[in-house]
Amino acid sequence: MSLPPSDMPPLCFKVLANLPELVRTTFSKARASGDVNFYPTKVAVFDVNSVPFQLRFAPSLANKPKNPPHSSSSEQSLPKKAPFDPFDNPPAPLLITTPSALDSHFLVLNKFAIVPEHFILATRAFAPQTHLLDAADLRAAYACIDAYHRAKNNNVHKKKDDNGEIIREDTGGELFVFFNSGPASGASQPHRHLQLLPVQRMRDGLPDDGGHGWDVLANALLDKSTRERLPFQTFAERIDPALGADGLRTVYLALYRLACGAVLGTAAERTSQQEEGEARISYNLAMTRDSMVIVPRATEGGDVFAPPASGDGDNNAEREKVGQLAFNGTLLAGTALVKSQVEWDALRQDPGQLAAVLGRIGVPWETAPGGTQGRGKI
């Protein structure tokens, strides 16, 4: 079932009907012209208490442009420039849809892509990333998810293999959508945006036989036993196209309140009627066609240490810190990213460090304030 026309967001119907191919084409052109920076990765799959997690390493991320250094005291006395907003008049080659006065949202490529065809749903007018999502945000995101799902079998992309033979390739598939909100969530831009990743491209580099076991974590979190195997609390609910915008927001607010209760530890927070304004906690949201999940966040990540030398045991105090592992909303896809060879080597040689960091980034089961357990769905 697709979203009913009366509930569709003000994104062009033609764009939604052809979204996977439009994203693919825009990404290919922007990459060829140098308007998108794509960072190829190596990948390994780790087992975290029987939950598969991807770990990716992008060697060329070391060359990514860095933020400008802090201003000197003399520069600070000058009039301050407004912070750069990448979603205010973005470069034309990155645009998937062109913003107009009739649109509440538009689609644009992520300029710095780890996953090919990574794109973004941003509000046309500025809205704070730290505030609660509204119904229009959620319905626009779900419309994109639905467009990819419908295109999976309806459209076929033809291309030639290395031998010149024509092969068929689905242009659609599934989308993983995530949202970062708050200082501990991995959020980096103040202008409201949700990020969208084609699931098929998230599988790039994994064996085709599926023996790695990885799949999008958000869907598995609908199962209570999977949620309880993770070292942090999550809150999940099944969704479907029939919910519509208001139904999606009802689920979102209920999950958000459960997350607030887990962090702040009072029944009042879990039953709060907050529907607008700034979120009370840091959190990540994930959406697929079938699931909506929220994870409350305590920290963005944790330290990575050199593997223990013989006889050193597991005491981190005696081990050299070699980097930091940070998570954003792709945590709920079951993925992590490192940016240096030394971090990559340390985690592969001592995989338990991944689980240790995961145990620090959210609300652990055994220390949840106020006795909340959050083990059930709403």
TrEMBL record:
Annotated GO MF terms: ATP binding; ATP:ADP adenylyltransferase activity
Region (Disordered), start-end ranges: 62-84
Domain Ap4A phosphorylase 1/2 N-terminal: 19-148, 176-202
Regions of compositional bias (Low complexity) in chain numbering: 71-84
Gene3D superfamilies documented for this protein: 3.30.428.70
Domain ATP adenylyltransferase C-terminal: 229-364
Gene Ontology process terms (BP): nucleotide metabolic process
UniProt xrefs under Pfam families: Ap4A_phos_N, ATP_transf
SUPFAM superfamilies: HIT-like
UniProt-recorded name of the protein: Histidine triad-like protein
Organism this protein belongs to: Podospora didyma
